[in-house]
């Protein structure tokens, strides 16, 4: 398994633990340079991440990263040939931004592929992928959606969430390569317990078990979170984000130190805890 760098924070404010602003260009370039020096070779971005995709190649400088990007969600008012034309234009824009560094294209919203226009969208993306010499995949919120899509499309790889609390991936045993996201649950697992419980009250009990588990084993939450990510099946790359150079340096050190860990007793099924789309009553 390799560490990969997510770039959503380079284009927009992101995450329950985020600063509330996009990472400045100078800091983003420093993070990218440090990541390459640390052995990171893959970046994850998307057309929907503000201006991250458009800025990424200039921020990379001379560093020869390989990039995963995602087709933004399909507009509700486009169908048939008009939707295919939209997809072609979007994908060409991504290719112009990323150039030869583009190696993987994913659908950002899996529901687009489950719609009546799904086969048309897939074929448009498949034509682009063949021409651009990149792999084709999908970003999902849960393994069940990925398995449903695999019945209809030859998906080569997928992005899925997974972490100490969200261990659905461990039960699913997916049969494609996985780029894991949300190893820190948007930073919630790295917050002090009191702060995390205040930000997301629904997760208070689960976070209490998590911090207790880390204390009992003498593990820093950062190291423990990465160790559990390493223990999930079918994962080839663990995608992490950072808002500062210091944050990334800490992640890189922890990645080297983290043993492979398994903690099924920490798993939570409640979507109000593990799925940010269901988070409510988040306070400062």
Overview of this protein structure:
With 284 residues, the chain is an alpha/beta fold. The chain has one domain (2-278): Alpha-Beta Barrel (TIM Barrel). The protein is built from 13 helices and eight strands. It has helices at 8-11, 25-37, 52-60, 80-98, 111-114, 118-132, 143-150, 168-172, 193-199, 204-216, 221-230, 245-257, 271-274; strands at 2-6, 42-44, 66-71, 102-107, 135-139, 157-161, 177-181, 235-240. The chain has an eight-stranded parallel β-barrel with strand order 1-2-3-4-5-6-7-8, surrounded by four helices. The chain starts with a strand and ends in a 10-residue tail after the last helix.
Describe the protein's topology.
Layout: E1 2-6, H1 8-11, H2 25-37, E2 42-44, H3 52-60, E3 66-71, H4 80-98, E4 102-107, H5 111-114, H6 118-132, E5 135-139, H7 143-150, E6 157-161, H8 168-172, E7 177-181, H9 193-199, H10 204-216, H11 221-230, E8 235-240, H12 245-257, H13 271-274
């Amino acid at each position: 398994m390799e560490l990969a760098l997510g770039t959503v924070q380079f284009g927009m404010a992101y995450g329950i633990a985020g600063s509330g602003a996009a990472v400045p260009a100078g800091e983003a370039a420093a993070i990218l340079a440090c990541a390459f020096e640390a052995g990171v070779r893959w970046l994850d971005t998307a057309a929907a991440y503000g201006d991250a995709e458009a800025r990424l190649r200039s921020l990379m400088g001379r560093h020869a990263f390989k990039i995963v990007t995602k087709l933004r969600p399909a507009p509700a008012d486009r169908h048939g040939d008009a939707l295919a034309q939209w997809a072609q234009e979007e994908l060409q824009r991504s290719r112009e931004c990323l150039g030869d560094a583009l190696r993987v294209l994913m659908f950002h919203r899996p529901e687009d592929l489950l719609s009546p226009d799904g086969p048309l969208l897939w074929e448009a993306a498949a034509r682009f992928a063949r021409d651009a010499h990149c792999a084709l995949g999908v970003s999902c919120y849960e393994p069940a959606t990925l398995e449903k899509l695999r019945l209809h499309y030859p998906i080569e790889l997928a992005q899925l969430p997974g972490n100490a609390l969200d261990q659905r991936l461990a039960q699913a045993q997916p049969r494609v390569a996985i780029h894991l996201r949300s190893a820190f649950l948007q930073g919630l697992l790295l917050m002090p317990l009191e702060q995390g419980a205040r930000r997301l009250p629904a997760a208070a009990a689960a976070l209490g078990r998590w911090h207790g588990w880390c204390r009992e084993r003498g593990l820093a939450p950062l190291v423990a979170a990465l160790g559990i990510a390493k223990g999930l099946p079918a994962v080839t790359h663990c995608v992490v984000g950072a808002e500062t150079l210091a944050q990334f340096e800490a992640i890189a050190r922890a990645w080297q130190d983290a043993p492979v860990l398994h903690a099924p007793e920490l798993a939570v099924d409640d979507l109000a805890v593990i799925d940010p789309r269901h988070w409510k009553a988040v306070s400062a």
